Amino acid sequence: MASQQQLSAIKGAKVLMVGAGGIGCELLKTLALSGFQDIHIIDMDTIEVSNLNRQFLFRKSHVGLSKAKVARDAVLRFRPNVSITSYHANVKNQEFNVDFFKQFSVVLNGLDNLDARRHVNRLCLAADVPLVESGTTGFLGQVTVHVKGKTECYECQPKPAPKTYPVCTITSTPSKFVHCIVWAKDLLFAKLFGDKNQENDLNVRSSDPASSSDHAEDIFELNKDETIEHYGRRVFDHVFGYNIEVALSNEDTWKNRNKPRPIYSRDILPDEPTKQNGNADKNCATDGQSLISAMASLGMKNPQEIWSLMENSRIFIEAIKLFFTKREKDVGNLAFDKDDQLAVEFVTAAANIRAESFGIPMHSLFESKGIAGNIVHAVATTNAIIAGLIVIEAIKVLQNDANNYRMTYCLEHPSRKMLLMPVEPFEPNKSCYVCSETPLSLEINTHSAKLRDLVEKIVKAKLGMNFPLIMHGAALLYEVGDDLDEDMVANYNANLEKVLSELPSPVVSGTILSVEDLQQELSCNINVKHRDEFDEEKEPDGMVLSGWQETSLEKGDSSKTLGNGESTSKTLPSTKDADKNDDTDIVVSGRKRKLDEASSAVDISSEANSSKKPEVLDDDDDDLVMLDDGDSAINKKKRLQ
Ligand SMILES: Nc1ncnc2c1ncn2[C@@H]1O[C@H](COP(=O)(O)OP(=O)(O)OP(=O)(O)O)[C@@H](O)[C@H]1O
Ligand SMILES: [Zn+2]
Fold this sequence. Notes:
Elements: H1 4-12, E1 14-18, H2 22-34, E2 38-43, H3 67-78, E3 83-88, H4 98-102, E4 106-109, H5 114-127, E5 131-137, E6 140-146, E7 164-166, H6 167-171, H7 177-193, H8 228-248, H9 265-268, H10 280-285, H11 294-297, H12 309-326, H13 341-357, H14 365-372, H15 380-398, E8 407-415, E9 418-423, E10 440-444, H16 451-460, E11 468-472, E12 475-479, H17 486-496, E13 512-517, E14 522-530, E15 543-546, E16 561-563, E17 585-588, E18 591-594, E19 615-617, E20 624-628
Parallel strand pairs: 1-2, 1-4, 2-3, 4-5, 10-14
Antiparallel strand pairs: 5-6, 6-8, 7-16, 8-9, 10-15, 11-12, 11-13, 13-14, 17-18, 17-20, 19-20
Helix pairs in contact: 2-15, 7-13, 8-12, 12-13, 13-14
Region (Disordered): 549-641
Domain Ubiquitin/SUMO-activating enzyme ubiquitin-like: 442-534
Keywords: ATP-binding, Metal-binding, Nucleotide-binding, Ubl conjugation pathway, Zinc
C-alpha cells in the first residue's frame, strides 16, 4: 500500500514513458494501476504478430497499428480517467527537445537500443529530469536510476560493443556455427543483395593474381545473358568450391586445424535447374515480402528440421532466384533483417553449406535465425518484474528519496538466495564527457583525414550526436539544421571534403575543437593530436578517440572484427560455462560492484557455492551485467551518500 505522501507524489507527477514494447506495456499498466494520472508515451513502432505473446495490451486486430496509441486505448478501457497522451514517433525527432522533456517529473525508458537510450539520457541531463532506465534479456533484467549530479548518468560507464569476431576467423578459419552465420549474413548476403559500394571482406582471401578473370570481383554480378540458376550456381561454386581450394593451397593455415572440403554444386545438385514444387506461383501472388519463401517454393515446411546438404543447396539457389525475380527492387539495398523470411532462409542455407565444408554441425532455420538475429526469447514475467521495479524507483525519485535509490538486477539463478539484486547507485563519473566537462582527446592524421571522416566516425558514430555543430575558436566549421541558408549549407559541404589541416581555420596538432549537439544540448571539447600512422587492423577508423571507450565483450580480441547483429539483436546469455564462485561480484558495464555493497534492505545470507556466473546482456547492443571474479579496485569507488 502506498503511503499518503507517495500517493500525492504519484498524483502530482507528469510521466514520460519511452517505448511501448515488452517492458512498456507492463509499465503503462502498472503506472495506471498505481494511480499515476498524467502519462505520455512515445513509441515509433507498429504492432507485429510476434509481439502478441507478451505485449498483452495488443491483439491480433491491432497488427500494423501504432503501439503507443493502441497501448493508450487499451489502458483507458480500464482506467478511463487517466490522462494518457501517445506519440507515434521516434524519440530522436526534433519535436522532443529539451523544452519538451522539461515538462516531465520523471522519464521512464522501456527501449531496446543503445542509440535511443543515449539520446534520452542526454535530454534528461539537459532538461534536468530524472531518468529510470531499464532492459531485459530473457530471464535477466535491470533497472537503474539516473539523477543529474546525484548518480551516474546512463553513459558514465562505457558500454560494451556488440560481440565481434576477428575477420580472419570469419573469412578463412571458422570453427563455430556462429562464425558461418556471420560470414553468410555480413559478407555473402551483403555482397549479393546489399549496397555494392560498402566495403566487404568476402573476397580478400581468394584474390589470386594468376587466376582467371572468372574469379575476379565481378563474380558476384549477374551477367545479362545468363539465367539466375546459372548465376546462383556460379556464386555457389565460387564461395564454397573455388575459395576453399584457394584457402587450402596455403598449407600453413591448416597445420593445426582440420582442412575444409571444397563443395561444388554439380556434386550436390542434379544438372537440371532446381525444380519447384508448384508453390512458386503462390509466392508470385503474395504482396508481402514475408510471404516470399524459398522453403515454401520447395515444399519444405518445418523450420525446426536440420536440412541436408542437398536441401541447403537447393534453398541457396532458390533464395537467390526469388530475390532476383520477386524482390528485384530490394536487391542492392538490403541489410540483413531477422524478420525477413527469405533473408533468413538464404543465410541459414549459406551458413550450413559453409559449416559442412569446415566440419561444423549444421543447424535448423529456427536455430540459425536465433543466432543471426541475436535473439534471446523474451520472458513476459521478467518484463513485468522490471516494470514494477521501474515504478518503485520512479516513486522514490518523485519523493526525492535519494538515500533509497537502487539499481536492481534481476538474475537467472539465485545468488545468495536472491533473484533480485539491489545495488546503491554510484556518484557521477567525473570523467564522463556526457555529464561532466571532461575534454576528449583525438589522435588523427590532420594532413589526410577529412572533416567528413571526423563527423561520421567520431561525432556521429562514437559520440552519438544527431545535430552536431563543430567550432574551432570562433570559426564555425560545420553545422546541421533545418534553418540554414543555402550558402551556409554549401560552405559546410565544402568543408566536409577538406582535409583538416586545410580547413579555413586549420585543425592541427594542439587544436581544441568544440563539438555541440543542439538538440541534446550536449557540448564537449576535443583536443586534437596529429599522428601519421594507424594500425589498419587495430585502429580501422584511422583515428583514436580517448577519454571515451567501448569495451569489447571478447577479451584479448584486438584485431579487426565483424559483429553478430546490431539491429534489434539481443545477445545470448551464457551460463553453461559458469564457474562456481562464492564471492560473486556484479559487473556493471564492465566495472564491478561487490555484492557486499548491495542494499541492506535485502537479507544477503551467504550461501556457499550458490552462485553461477551468468552473463547478462540486455537488449540490443547495450549494458553488460556479468557475475564474475572479484576485483577490489571497484570498492574504492564512492557510493552515493
Ligand atoms: N528511437 C526510438 N523512438 C521511439 N521508440 C523506440 C525507439 N527505439 C526503440 N523504440 C521502441 O522501444 C520498444 C522496445 O520494445 P521491445 O524491446 O519489446 O521491442 P519489440 O520491437 O517490441 O520486440 P522484439 O524486438 O523482441 O521483436 C519498441 O516498441 C520500439 O519501437
Ligand atoms: Zn555521465
